[in-house]
Amino acid sequence: MDQALIQGCGLKKYYQSGNTRTAALNGVNFSLQRGAFTVLAGRSGSGKTTLLNMIGLLDRPDEGSLRIAGEDVLAISRRQRANFRLRRIGFIFQAYNLIRVLSARENVAYVQQLRGMKKKQRLELADYWLAQVDLAGLGDRRPDQLSGGQQQRVAVARALASQPEIILADEPTANLDSHNGESLMALMRRLNERENTTFLIASHDPVAMDAARELVSMQDGVMIDRVLRE
Questions:
Q1: Pairing label, strands 198-202, 214-219
Q2: Burial class of residue 50, CB neighbours in 10 A (0-12, 13-18, 19+)
Q3: Above pLDDT 90, what percent of the chain?
């Protein structure tokens, strides 16, 4: 088997509240292969979002090791971690996190703007990815002119346009009705299969869990089950 895209060993994270210390992650060993479509499942407080944020380099473990694409990401500087996120990780958030004053096209092009891509090239790339998520012709609309489902598709297009090695999605269906949630998950599955993009999704939504090619169940900061559905 090829080297795992993500390899975490003995990951621990503690939070202090008064005199009480709680383990959000309690010695998690986690690996993910390229091209995976994996859902981290568990109720609130299970540790799934903490693990997702750690892999996204938004948080650091108190103990353990983490390698992404062969690189020890805990040994690099804050600036290097920010650049690693920009170049190699795409994010899809529950609240969409679109820039309200920018059009859909400009939102999708934003990461490439940060990378220094020329305007014409990045807007053409944005139009391509908007078409891939069935939003062709809507590039000039601002987020407040789009439905919730359409805004989440813009967020997916933005993540894919940066051509990352992995896309991390935190509760991507939480603000969608069941129809739009199923449509979004089907879209991400198609893109995963067609582009071989690696997806890691944290969700307690049955719609997301049903779509998973691999389901990892978490409880009280530990992994309790892992099921492949190939």
A1: unpaired
A2: buried
A3: 70
Helix (H) or strand (E) segment spanning residue 136: none
Query: In terms of C-beta density within 10 A (0-12 exposed, 13-18 middle, 19 or more buried), how is residue 142 classed?
Result: middle
Q: pLDDT tens, 23-80?
A: 899 999 999 999 999 999 998 889 999 999 999 999 999 999 999 999 999 999 999 9
Asked if 210 and 181 count as a contact pair (C-beta separation under 8 A), the reply is no
**DSSP class of 97:** -
The strand pairing partners of 13, in sequence order, are 25
For the record, the structure tokens of 207 come out as 């719609």
The whole-model pTM stands at 0.90
Amino acid in the structure at residue 19: N
Whether residue 133 contacts residue 155, with contact meaning beta carbons closer than 8 Å, is answered with no
Number of CB atoms found within 10 A of residue 117's CB: 15
33 closest CA partner among 143, 198, 179? 198
